[in-house]
Write a structure and sequence with these properties.
This protein has 151 residues and is mainly α. The protein has seven helices and no strands.
Length: 151
Protein backbone atom coordinates (compact mmCIF):
# COMPACT_ATOMS: atom_id res chain seq x y z
CA UNK A 1 0.00 0.00 0.00
CA UNK A 2 1.16 3.52 -0.72
CA UNK A 3 0.37 4.41 2.88
CA UNK A 4 3.22 2.13 3.94
CA UNK A 5 5.87 3.99 1.97
CA UNK A 6 7.19 5.40 5.26
CA UNK A 7 8.49 1.88 6.03
CA UNK A 8 10.91 2.02 3.10
CA UNK A 9 11.80 5.67 3.21
CA UNK A 10 11.81 6.04 6.99
CA UNK A 11 14.21 3.12 7.29
CA UNK A 12 16.43 4.61 4.58
CA UNK A 13 16.71 7.87 6.50
CA UNK A 14 17.02 6.14 9.87
CA UNK A 15 19.92 4.08 8.48
CA UNK A 16 21.88 7.34 8.21
CA UNK A 17 21.30 7.98 11.91
CA UNK A 18 22.47 4.44 12.75
CA UNK A 19 25.53 4.86 10.53
CA UNK A 20 26.45 8.13 12.18
CA UNK A 21 26.02 6.55 15.60
CA UNK A 22 28.24 3.58 14.75
CA UNK A 23 30.87 5.51 12.82
CA UNK A 24 31.02 8.89 14.56
CA UNK A 25 29.27 8.49 17.91
CA UNK A 26 26.14 9.58 19.70
CA UNK A 27 26.64 13.32 19.16
CA UNK A 28 26.78 12.85 15.39
CA UNK A 29 23.70 10.63 15.46
CA UNK A 30 21.80 13.22 17.50
CA UNK A 31 22.81 15.96 15.06
CA UNK A 32 21.48 13.88 12.15
CA UNK A 33 18.29 13.16 14.07
CA UNK A 34 17.82 16.89 14.76
CA UNK A 35 18.12 17.59 11.02
CA UNK A 36 15.44 14.96 10.37
CA UNK A 37 13.18 16.53 13.01
CA UNK A 38 13.64 19.95 11.44
CA UNK A 39 12.84 18.61 7.98
CA UNK A 40 9.83 16.77 9.39
CA UNK A 41 8.54 19.93 11.12
CA UNK A 42 8.87 22.00 7.95
CA UNK A 43 7.01 19.41 5.89
CA UNK A 44 3.99 19.39 8.21
CA UNK A 45 2.96 22.91 7.22
CA UNK A 46 -0.31 22.65 5.34
CA UNK A 47 -2.40 25.45 3.93
CA UNK A 48 -5.40 24.35 6.00
CA UNK A 49 -3.36 23.93 9.22
CA UNK A 50 -4.57 20.36 9.68
CA UNK A 51 -1.13 18.76 9.33
CA UNK A 52 -0.19 15.43 7.80
CA UNK A 53 -0.05 11.81 8.89
CA UNK A 54 3.15 9.82 8.52
CA UNK A 55 1.11 6.67 7.95
CA UNK A 56 -1.10 8.18 5.25
CA UNK A 57 -0.05 11.63 4.06
CA UNK A 58 -2.38 11.53 1.06
CA UNK A 59 -1.49 11.23 -2.63
CA UNK A 60 -0.21 14.80 -2.95
CA UNK A 61 2.28 14.28 -0.09
CA UNK A 62 3.32 10.67 -0.68
CA UNK A 63 6.91 11.69 -1.44
CA UNK A 64 7.14 14.50 1.09
CA UNK A 65 9.50 14.80 4.02
CA UNK A 66 6.62 13.72 6.27
CA UNK A 67 7.18 10.23 4.89
CA UNK A 68 10.99 10.33 4.73
CA UNK A 69 12.04 12.37 7.76
CA UNK A 70 8.88 11.61 9.72
CA UNK A 71 9.44 7.89 9.21
CA UNK A 72 13.00 8.21 10.50
CA UNK A 73 11.88 10.22 13.52
CA UNK A 74 9.18 7.64 14.23
CA UNK A 75 11.75 4.83 14.19
CA UNK A 76 13.99 6.80 16.54
CA UNK A 77 11.08 7.23 18.93
CA UNK A 78 10.12 3.56 18.66
CA UNK A 79 13.68 2.65 19.64
CA UNK A 80 13.40 4.92 22.69
CA UNK A 81 9.99 3.44 23.52
CA UNK A 82 10.96 -0.26 23.44
CA UNK A 83 14.69 -0.05 24.18
CA UNK A 84 17.76 -0.94 22.17
CA UNK A 85 17.64 -4.70 22.72
CA UNK A 86 14.06 -5.09 21.53
CA UNK A 87 14.48 -2.52 18.77
CA UNK A 88 17.45 -4.26 17.19
CA UNK A 89 15.81 -7.66 17.63
CA UNK A 90 12.78 -6.19 15.83
CA UNK A 91 14.94 -5.06 12.92
CA UNK A 92 16.60 -8.48 12.63
CA UNK A 93 13.29 -10.33 12.83
CA UNK A 94 11.62 -7.91 10.36
CA UNK A 95 14.31 -8.66 7.82
CA UNK A 96 14.24 -12.41 8.47
CA UNK A 97 10.49 -12.79 8.47
CA UNK A 98 9.69 -10.62 5.46
CA UNK A 99 12.78 -11.19 3.31
CA UNK A 100 11.70 -11.31 -0.36
CA UNK A 101 8.06 -10.78 0.54
CA UNK A 102 5.55 -8.02 1.16
CA UNK A 103 4.64 -6.55 4.51
CA UNK A 104 2.82 -3.46 5.67
CA UNK A 105 2.61 -1.14 8.67
CA UNK A 106 0.17 -3.47 10.41
CA UNK A 107 2.70 -6.29 10.10
CA UNK A 108 5.41 -4.03 11.49
CA UNK A 109 3.23 -2.99 14.43
CA UNK A 110 2.32 -6.61 15.20
CA UNK A 111 5.96 -7.66 15.10
CA UNK A 112 7.03 -4.74 17.30
CA UNK A 113 4.42 -5.81 19.85
CA UNK A 114 5.48 -9.45 19.59
CA UNK A 115 9.16 -8.68 20.09
CA UNK A 116 8.67 -6.13 22.85
CA UNK A 117 5.86 -7.97 24.60
CA UNK A 118 4.01 -4.66 24.86
CA UNK A 119 0.78 -3.21 23.52
CA UNK A 120 2.03 -0.43 21.24
CA UNK A 121 -1.30 0.50 19.69
CA UNK A 122 -1.51 3.95 21.28
CA UNK A 123 2.10 4.68 20.31
CA UNK A 124 1.57 3.70 16.67
CA UNK A 125 -1.75 5.56 16.43
CA UNK A 126 -0.21 8.69 17.89
CA UNK A 127 2.79 8.59 15.61
CA UNK A 128 1.42 7.26 12.34
CA UNK A 129 -2.31 7.90 12.30
CA UNK A 130 -2.59 11.29 14.01
CA UNK A 131 -1.86 14.42 11.95
CA UNK A 132 1.39 16.24 12.65
CA UNK A 133 1.60 20.03 12.54
CA UNK A 134 4.69 22.20 13.11
CA UNK A 135 3.33 23.04 16.57
CA UNK A 136 2.91 19.38 17.46
CA UNK A 137 6.47 18.64 16.33
CA UNK A 138 7.77 21.62 18.36
CA UNK A 139 5.83 20.47 21.43
CA UNK A 140 7.17 16.93 21.06
CA UNK A 141 10.76 18.02 20.42
CA UNK A 142 11.38 21.30 22.23
CA UNK A 143 14.68 22.98 21.51
CA UNK A 144 17.27 22.56 24.26
CA UNK A 145 16.92 25.45 26.64
CA UNK A 146 13.59 26.54 25.15
CA UNK A 147 11.53 28.25 27.77
CA UNK A 148 14.52 28.70 30.02
CA UNK A 149 15.41 32.19 31.09
CA UNK A 150 18.45 33.57 29.32
CA UNK A 151 21.39 34.52 31.55
Amino acid sequence: RWQDIWLNEGFARYAQILWDEAEYGEDAAQATLRRQISSFANSTRTSDGQGLKIGDPGPENIFSEVVYAGGAVFLSQLRAEIGDDDFFELLQEWNTRYFHSNANADDFRALAEEVSGRDLDAFFVSWLDTPWTPDRVADTFPLPGAGSPTP
